[in-house]
Amino acid sequence: MKMTETYPQDKARTAPEAGAAVVNAEVLLQLQELQKNYGHVQILAGVDFEICRGEFVCVVGPSGSGKTTLLKCMAGLLEPSGGQTVFEGQQVTEPPAKLAVVFQDYSRSLLPWMTVWQNVELPMKNKFAKAERPARIESVLEAVGLGGKGSLYPWQMSGGMQQRAAIARGLAYQPDVLLMDEPFAAVDAQTRIELEDLVLRVRQEFDMTVVFVTHDIDEAVYLADRVVVLSGAPTTVSRNIAVDLPQPRNQRDTKLLPEYARLRAEVFELIQSAKSHATIR
Amino acid sequence: MTTTQFRELPAPTRPRAPRRSAGRTSFAAGSLGKGVLGAGTVLAVLAAWEVLARAGAFPPGSIPPASAVLAEFVRQLGVPLFWAAVWNTVSVALLGLLLIAVIAAPLALLIGLVRPVQESTWFLMEFLKPIPPVALIPLGLLLWGPSPGMKLFLIVMGAIWPLLTQLIYGIKEINGVGADMARSYRLGWWLTTSRLVFPSVLPFALTGLRISASIAIVIAVVTEMIGGAAGLGQNIVVAQSAGALAEMYALVIAAGLLGLLINAAFRAVQKPLLFWHPSVRQEGNL
Question: What sequence ranges are listed for the domain ABC transporter (chain A) (predicted)?
């Protein structure tokens, strides 16, 4: 497990431009004026923010704001039309080795002809010696609550369990940053609550930086150290909101805090105004 | 391939065993019902044939009774020349199939992945597809004479299309999320090809091969009949011209059974290979 030198609990960062001013946080991922056009349609119009090591950042935006496009540009899966992503000081042109993505569509990202174990092992093949793998797979499966379920095929499991397997695959790859693209959009509400807490727990356990893209305001505020709110397309960052809710979070107590309600309302209003100002295309 | 359906299953300790046995029992039960019905229909048709032939419903010297044909079929099974003819037909059909696979695989990759190639070849393909292989027999005879070479040429020309089109579909159907996953985890070309592309295309390839195989047998028999290469088809023509009608029909039945067997063989491989595919794991037929 990689030990990070600092784990800033106080990363109250209000503006994206403040990056250089923060001393105790190492910037891991930088989005610099990221732009993306599809033909004549501009989706991203200069998206600018930074993610520090150890941070849990939720990216929220109204639907159609290009969240998935943004994540793909961050992951090196999509070439931006302008600007760049910088990961650990290097411009991202292809997916970096220390970055893993958990996709929304687990039924397609997990390969049905492989067991859960084989799915988790697949990305490790180029990265870890054969002898190292079993113990590590065992431990990540345990961490996501799939201990002993490695011999199942994805299609023998519920949607929630499949997404757990996909998260385990990401963890086993031992990335510095885990990008999650609306990972719980396709599971039911109760499973979603379980998986949210799961992500918070493994993030602590594996000391992970997480970028979590979602359209769900509650989810974003509940999970994040910081919420990046996007405007509607053409998309820019409309606000960085530090979430100073106490850790560890708790589905019942955290959501009863006045601060939670206030943050939720703030994000909600931003999204609403983004929707009403969105360019009609 | 749509994989958007999920089933909540009780977690078996060894998933392979329960899955297989479940698949097998349901398959056996289904095919048993089908088998009984199918056999019943065959018997009914044979009985009708027998009655009509004995009642003189067919023109004289056209169709002997079913019993005579079946007796001749059984007798043929003991004749070495019959098996030689079967071998001539089957071996060339299978060789043709192999050739088809070798030609279609790289072609499909090229057409499926390279847009300009697809755009520049579609007209040619759509033009060649409907040409009946029989129409190319004169060309085959000119090039190779009545030989296995001619048969092979016609089989490839006529039977390549199902496999080729299926492969092209399969390559295009490789899902984007899977490809993104492979790229984001930097799987590299070997892992991507062997673990993602090959299994993704396999269902399409097997379906294509199965259809191509049936067509290959048909073309083999037809070219033997018309082009005069050795095999079942030639024996059918010889038996007809010798007035050995029972033998002729026995050989026709043999040709039919051959197609059936090849189809069944492919289905048999398909099930275990595609155990993960929605059509197999949900007790469907591929």
Answer: 29-257
